[in-house]
Amino acid sequence: MLKIFKITAIIEGISALLLFFFAMPMKYIYNDPFYVKHIGMVHGILFTLYIVLATILKFKEKWDFKKYFIICIASIPPFGTFYIERKYLKNV
């Protein structure tokens, strides 16, 4: 389960970067919302999966609330999931 979460964290982070640094500029600079619509949908699904898996792992791995909270909050800023993967999931 931790390995699936680690992979999800990496893919979610990549999708966030694609959304912020590719799709949004395409929308606002080139007036093309196509990429925001599709990459945004994928990112939303991955974000939801990330939070669900973190919640499951909180109970399965007996994470304290602080660790769980940090892991969940780190999914919001760009590069946050890469930090989590490096700090908390490195040995998986």
UniProtKB/TrEMBL annotation:
One Pfam family matching this protein: DUF3817
Alphabetical UniProt keywords: Cell membrane, Membrane, Transmembrane, Transmembrane helix
Membrane topology field: Multi-pass membrane protein
Localisation per UniProt entry: Cell membrane
Protein name: DUF3817 domain-containing protein
Location (main, coarse): membrane
InterPro entries assigned to the protein according to its UniProt record, in alphabetical order: DUF3817_TM
Any one GO CC term of the record: plasma membrane
Annotated transmembrane regions: 7-29, 35-56, 68-84
High-level lineage: Bacteria, Pseudomonadati, Bacteroidota, Flavobacteriia, Flavobacteriales
Domain DUF3817, chain residue ranges per copy: 2-89
Top-level taxon of the source organism: Bacteria
NCBIfam families given in the database record: integ_memb_HG
